Every structure is written in C-alpha cells, then in structure tokens.
Amino acid sequence: MTLSNSERTGLIATVLFHTAVLLLLLYMGFVVPYPPPQEEGFLIDFGNSDTGLGLEEPSAASAPEVVAAAKKVVPAAKPINRPQKTPKVEDKGDEDLLTQDYEKTVAVNSRAKKKVRDEKKAKLDEEQRIKAREEQQQRAEALELQRQEAEENRIAQEKTAKIGAINSRAKNAFGGGKTDNGSQSTGQGNTYGRGNQGSPDGTPGAKQYGLGGGAGKGISFSLSGRNARSLPKPNFPGNESGTVVVEVTVDKNGKVTTASPGFKGSNTVNPDLLEAAKKAALAASFNTDANAPAFQKGTITYHFILQ
C-alpha cells in the first residue's frame, strides 16, 4: 500500500504527538519521592502516671511512690438509695391525650358547631319572618272581612230605617206610636241579648245606644251603673267619617284598663279612626264604685263627622 505525502506527514505528526504526551506523563505524574514523608505529631512530657499537678518536673526517685499513690484505689462511697416519689397521676378514664392534632380537631369542631348555630339562627329568622308575614296577612284579611261586615250592616240598617220610616209615616196617619213601625225585630243596640237598647225619651233611628250616658258632640258610652267623669274628644284625622265603637274594661276606680276599637256597631275600618278612638277611650275615666266588678266591660261610641 502506497501512502501519499499528506498521509505520511499526518502519521508522523500523530506518532510524535502521542510520544510527547507519554513522556510528559512519565516525567510529571509517576515520580515517587524517596524516602516517603514521615507522619508528623506533637511532643508529650515524660511521666509515670495519667494524673498529676504542678509545674516542676519531679525526680525519678519519687516516681515509685507517686505511681503507688496513683494506683491506690479509693473505695467509692456507697450510694444512698432514696425512695423515689411516684408522681400522682389522676385517673381520667379513657380521656384522650391532648396533642397538636387534637387541638386542630377542637378548632374544626368549633367551626362546625358555629356553622350549625348560624344555620339554626338563619332558619329561625326565616320562620319568624314567614310567621310575621302570615300574621300580617291574617290581620289584613280580618280587617277586610270586618269592613265588609260593617258595610253590609250599614246597608241593612239604612234599608231597615227607610222601611221603618215609611211604615211609621203610614201608621202614624192612623194614630200609631213613635216606635210602631211594623218591624219584626226583637232587639236593637250594640251589646248582647234581646231588647231595644236606648232611652225611653230617645229618638227612633238616632243610633245612640246605652242608658242615656254621654258627653255630647258625637260621644256616648254604655257602662251599667257608672257615670263618666271624663270622656276626652278624640283627635279626628278629618279624612273620612264613620262610627267607631270601642269595647272598654274599667276597674273599680273608674280607670279604663283596656280598649278594643272596631266593636259591634262600628261602620268603618279606617285605621286612623280606630287608633284615634282607642287613644281617646284609654284616656277616659268613670266614677269610683267599690261594689262594681273588678273589671267591668262596656262600650264608648265615637261618631266622626266630616264638617
């Protein structure tokens, strides 16, 4: 095989390069120093015992005595066995140990309990709101029903009064009395039972009942055996007319303890008129009667008339 000049040159250069590297390694890396280095240490003073005290070197003559003294065994003191007090451990049954995990569990349980309390409170508030709405709706329905009944009573009374007036005029022409109107009714008034409530000197159709008691100006009362000392005039709102009958409870001293407006005989459910009549009734007073019942019931009637 014949090599070209470039190939011979490259071969020679490669051999020379590797030879130089080998010689460099042999010269620098494989030289071992002789003799090998000795291990270094530090000097220790000559002695004959593991213990000692002082700065001056002792003589060799006293060495055996020092060694004997050093080797002399001193008996160890006998230890005193004292009864150890056993720590008093309170028996708490199967109570769990308080650990970090337990504290985390307590925190989690507290949050869970708080969440349950909040849910119960929200549920109770919602139930109370629902109950309040239902009660408000029931009151509104009751007022509407009462208004309808009052309107029906008013229409019936007007119709009866017209019929009675016609019959009265017809019979009076033939000598009839002032109450002889041909009515088949067995009673009239705003209390209970049969009978024509009013006064023998009253006027038919006046719609003022009771035993003749009253303070005039649209105020009358019905309270058996009692006289009025004060019947304050109600504050008339002036936006609607109507009659409000207030059922009152009076004690022995004549003080009105309770007042419920809208009693039988009322022909309006206007809240302003009802409230004005109630306030006036609570401010009313009657004579003191030691023989009267502890709580005597009666009525005060207020007529609100637009001027």
Structure description:
With 307 residues, the protein is an alpha+beta fold. Among the domains are: 102-180; 208-304, TonB (TolA/TonB C-terminal domain, 2-Layer Sandwich), CATH 3.30.2420.10. The chain has 4 helices and 9 strands; from the N terminus they run H-H-H-E-E-E-E-E-E-E-H-E-E. The chain has helices at 5-28, 63-71, 100-172, 271-282; strands spanning 187-188, 195-196, 214-216, 219-222, 228-230, 242-250, 256-261, 285-286, 296-304. The strands form 3 sheets. A 5-stranded antiparallel β-sheet has the order 3-4-9-6-7, covered by helices on one side. A two-stranded parallel sheet has the order 1-2. The longest helix has 73 residues, at 100-172.
Nutshell version of this structure?
The chain contains 4 helices and 9 strands.
Put simply, the count of helices is 4
CA-CA gap between termini: 149 Å
Strand order of the largest sheet: 3-4-9-6-7
Low-confidence stretches: 172-176, 210-216
Calculate the mean pLDDT score and round it: 75
> What class would the helix/strand composition place it in?
alpha+beta
CATH superfamily of the domain at 208-304: TonB
Provide the CATH top-level class of the domain at 208-304: Alpha Beta
**Architecture of the domain at 208-304, CATH level 2?**
2-Layer Sandwich
Helix content: 25-40%
Shape: elongated
- The fraction of residues assigned to DSSP E strands is 5-15%
Radius of gyration: 61 Å
Could you tell me the CATH topology label of the domain at 208-304.
TolA/TonB C-terminal domain
The major sheet is characterized as:
5 strands, antiparallel
Run of helices and strands: HHHEEEEEEEHEE
Q: Care to count the β-strands?
A: 9
